[in-house]
Design brief:
The chain is α+β, with helices and mostly antiparallel strands and about 500 residues long. Helices cover about 45% and strands about 20% of the residues. The strands form 2 sheets. Strands 1, 2, 3, 5, 6, 7 and 9 form a 7-stranded mixed sheet that branches. Strands 4-8-11-10 form a 4-stranded antiparallel sheet, with no helix packed on it. Strand 10 (about 215-230) and strand 11 form a beta hairpin.
Length: about 500
């Protein structure tokens, strides 16, 4: 019996010793196999066990009235996209959060010199800073990253993030425009009496040390400002940090693809006024330019975003569209005028002829063209009928005086009345034929002269339209380009 009681007492003692050992290990945060973990692991297990007991939803402060100070900074890495149509700016950034957590402190000596540890951000309290002007359909903006914690409770959290923010787009000076967008960060639930925000190292601007140069945009400035604002939902003030990024579009690509083709197509309309009205290419080239311009206009429409303000370049495109359209109508007008004299052989009105031939033609240096038509006679050169009748300039052989021929016939008739009667009949027939032929030649010369007058008038109008168009093209460029560049300078 004594042996049995001795064994029971020994068994009870061993069990009690085992439970006491386990209880002590749990109380101090170490397991029975603690010798297998490094001191860094021990610190992490110790701190996370404490956080598991207190929870991660309350602010890490000693007293409820204490304010937790959070510093925040942005490091711009890349401008990923600026969607002008949706008015969304997409940035690739590194965010930097720093704060003090009283529940993440430990004695460095006790843990053999462990000063810093890395723990998941999901296991501890983190500030609920949000992008106020977000325009993102995603649920998460940041990539998971660890927090760096020191022995004094200082926490540094630097997650990577892709932010999509709303941005007011002004395309008045497109493609030489400059856009200014902002990113507003602040606590979504903690007011300024619970959580205070400051800039990292008191630097009120974005960090550009890791910025990757964009092929589309050039960063002019990236400044920031701390704001204290009261909203309608709450009486307490809320603090936010607003970062302003100003970017200018690199316009070289658009100058080659939108501006230069537009200027060249409009300049081609000048060729239309130098092509002769008789050439079919006059109208064909005009319609070809018209169709090519509308293809360019569709490209321009796809590149330019919709906006409340009309872009200056869009106005320039509209002006050129009107010029190209009007050039087709003017070419038809000139062609129709050049054939008017052939269809309707009517002389030019005297007033129109005098104004166009005497004044405007002289001003346009076209004197040599209109000079043959400035005399009052219908034909300025010797008539074709005289050449056919064998009459020279002084009328020494045949004249228009038909009496001389009659007297000659009467004189001859005295010698031989029968033969002269036949000759007289034949001569009369010849005379009537020559007279009719002369009238036809004169009518033909008159019609040719009228047709030439209308063609010369068409040339004068062509020259007038050329002067008007080249003046309009130069003036439009001189007006539009300074407006675009002045808008860009004013935004600076």
């Amino acid at each position: 019996m004594d042996v049995k009681w001795t064994l029971k007492i020994l068994q009870t003692f061993l069990c009690w010793n085992f439970f006491m050992t386990v209880f002590k290990c749990r109380g101090t945060g170490y397991s029975s196999s603690s010798t297998e973990f490094s001191y860094e692991d021990r610190v992490i297990k110790h701190l996370l066990r404490k956080y598991e007991e207190r929870g991660k939803f309350g602010r890490p402060v000693q007293n409820y009235s204490d304010i937790i100070n959070v510093t925040f900074g942005l490091q711009l890495v890349q401008i990923m996209n600026l969607d002008e149509r949706k008015q969304i700016l997409t940035l690739n950034v590194w965010t930097n959060y720093q704060w003090k957590d009283v529940h993440l402190r430990w004695n460095v000596t006790e843990f053999h010199g462990v000063k810093k540890i890395n723990i998941p951000a999901t296991e501890i309290w983190t500030p609920d800073l949000r992008l106020y002007n977000f325009a993102d359909e995603r649920l998460h903006e940041r990539r998971d990253s660890l927090c760096i914690v020191d022995s004094y409770g200082g926490v540094s959290w630097i997650p990577q993030a892709v932010f999509k923010s709303s941005c007011d787009i002004d395309v008045k000076a497109f493609p030489f425009d400059k856009q200014s967008c902002h990113l507003k960060f602040g606590s979504w639930t903690y007011d300024g009496l619970q959580l205070d925000l400051y800039f990292k190292n008191d630097i009120e601007e974005m960090d550009m040390s890791e910025f990757q140069t964009s092929n589309v945009w050039h960063v002019i400035s990236a400044v920031a400002k701390r704001n204290v604002k009261t909203y309608t939902c709450c009486a307490e003030p809320f603090i936010d940090l607003t970062f302003w990024i100003t970017i200018r579009r690199k316009a070289t690509f658009y100058a080659y693809t939108l501006i230069l083709p537009c200027v060249l197509l409009t300049s081609l309309t000048l060729i239309l006024f130098w092509i002769p009205a008789e050439s079919p290419a006059k109208l064909t080239l005009g319609m070809s330019i018209f169709m090519a311009y509308f293809v360019l206009l569709s490209i321009f429409q796809r590149n330019i975003p919709p906006s409340e303000t009309s872009p200056v370049l869009g106005t320039y495109y509209c002006v050129n569209m009107v010029l190209i359209t009007m050039s087709s109508f003017l070419c038809v007008f000139v062609v129709n005028m050049s054939v008017t004299g052939t269809r309707y052989p009517v002389h030019l009105p005297k007033t129109l002829k005098k104004v166009m031939f005497s004044y405007i033609a002289r001003a346009l240096c076209m004197d040599n063209i209109v000079k043959p038509f400035m005399e009052d006679g219908h034909v300025t050169c010797p008539t074709t009928s005289r050449r056919y009748m064998g009459v020279n300039g002084d009328g020494s052989k045949f004249t228009n005086d038909w009496k001389g021929s009659s007297e000659t016939l009467i004189t001859v008739q005295k010698d031989s009345s029968n033969e002269l009667a036949v000759i007289h009949t034949k001569v009369n027939e010849i005379r009537n034929f020559i007279k009719l032929y002369k009238e036809r030649l004169e009518e033909k010369d008159r019609k040719e002269k009228i047709a030439k007058e209308w063609k010369v008038l068409a040339l004068i109008f062509d020259r007038i339209f050329f002067i008007i168009y080249i003046t309009t093209i130069i003036v439009s460029l001189m007006v539009v380009l300074p407006i675009i560049f002045d808008s860009d300078i004013e935004e600076k």
